[in-house]
Amino acid sequence: MLHFIRRARTADIRVQIAIGVVLVAIAIVAPLVTSSFVIGFFALTFPLAILALSADMMWGEGRLVSFGQGLFFAAGGYIGGLVLIGKQYDVSGSALSFLSEDTQQPLMDRVLQQLHDLAIAGVPIPALILPAMICGVVGLIIGMIVFRVASPEVYFPLVTLGLGVVGGLWFNDLSNVGASNGLGGIPSFTAEMGPQQDPIYNYMFNLAFVIVAFVGWAYFRRSRRGQIWRGAGDDAIRLEALGYSVRRQRVLAFGASAALAAVAGALYAGTSGYMGPSIAGVAFSAEVLIWVAVGGSGRVLGPLIGVLVVRWGQQFLSSNLGLQQSWQLFMGLALILVVVVAPGGLLGIRLEPLRQRLFGRGETKA
Amino acid sequence: MQTLINIIAQGLSLGGVYLIGALGLTIIYGVMGVVNLAHGELIMLGSYVMALTVSTVSFPVAVVLSFVLVAGFGVVLDTVLIRFLYHKPVASMLGTWGLAIVLRQAVILLLGPQLRYVALPIAGSFALGYGALVSWWSMLLFVVAMLIAVAIGLILVRTRFGLKMRAVTANSDAAESIGIATRNINRWTFALGCGLAGVAGALVAPLRTVFPGMGLPYLVGAFLVVILAGLGNVRSTVIWSLLIGLTFSAVAITRDDITATIVVWCAALIVIAFRRTSVVVSRV
Q: Which residues of B74-231 form beta strands (DSSP E)?
């Protein structure tokens, strides 16, 4: 029924599985051979890869670019961080409650403490579930409003751009989560498992989520629901004519994307120990889009590769070449270059001629 | 009463800036299908032209100069980047966002990140009774914005260039095939939009501080106008930019800027949610 979906975009499933198995194997063996600095780098990059995936869920398959992913990421990080800490941000810097006669804690703190204690094997599970639920519902509500308008491929980015600006300002002003200071001192998800200094625990914990997210996404793209969702991006009018509600697809996708971004944010907050208002702003959300653009949107591994290349490049330029100041300039130039020269990103660079020569068969369309 | 007059005066001048910005965005999108996210940075460039020249030349010359220089820069941008992005909304957003980053960083590298202040070229204000003082400059800004809106409307309806612009908006391929040089129309439309952004920046410079990152709030405000007014509709662009300017200044004066931004966007979402007909990309 959905014949019009680009068949060429899905590579042979055996090749996909083989690539996946090799990557997972490398990721599991890697800590044995590399330094703890590299492990720490990857542990912090994995949540960002999930964030990039959440942006590509909208962009790659639905042709809808969201400038608000950072907002959901930050919101997830704040909610997760509050649950991990178990109390609100203390404005005075030290607990003054024992100075006053009233030993009763505020309601918010008691709720957070309760949630914090709901741990399974030492991991406070509500710190992951709560962000996903709250941001998912917010995403659904915003989606229901935004996708009323015609030509959402133009209006959706603009509305999310505005939401990003508003969200950044709001978190900058919200004293429960530290306002402009941000929320610091967030304990790790794996705090009960081993010493906080060793990044290997965070690495493995986050790796599990990356594997689940990317394998789940690859599986979903092949499933029937996934094909319908891709149809909404390919040809919305034809999908509508086949009896599917494109608007419903888009609303659901935005809800799922927001929830995934929130989980990524919670993981990031647990790993870095910090979440700040600048992450909610538009500049960071645009950086997420740059990762996806560099890696290649609409490919399963595009977001992962984009994040690794850009973040590694950032690390290299700022620490090895001392170009910390002009890093932004490079990002802007990279974005322009990708959009004009290689719209498919690194993964989209045409290798057909080479592949044809090697394997004797090629894909006609990219 | 005094507060009310202040709200109206500030709202009209802010609405004027949004109006000039939104007009540029809307003609650029209408004619060449480019969503220009670098518009805030073009406004910033206009402010810098004003800040750097107003001490040597008189202010009307400085305003005209910022129009000419930013429009000329627009021609360069069109040649090196924008023409690759015609009629690709998503690619144009990403490309122009990259351009915005580059422009911001280039200004930081060349002129430094410090804040600059421009003295009001027409100092002073007039009394409206009830102890309320309205500055001449903000009224001038509003009047110039309205004149520009009228001029754009007339250009679109009464001139050959406007006719060609509307033809390209309606159907670019058909316009090309009946002998309209769409390449030139695109280039000059983009230059006009950039020039308008330059004027907006020049006019707003004396009211606010000038710094490399100043563009984003204006970009977001102008796009809010465009979202509510529909792309390519001059009359509703005027109405919505004034409404938004007034709403923003009402909340900003009684509470603060952050609350105002939040209130304006939530109001916009509610308007979109309860609108009977959805927003349509209409003709200019």
A: 125-127, 133-135
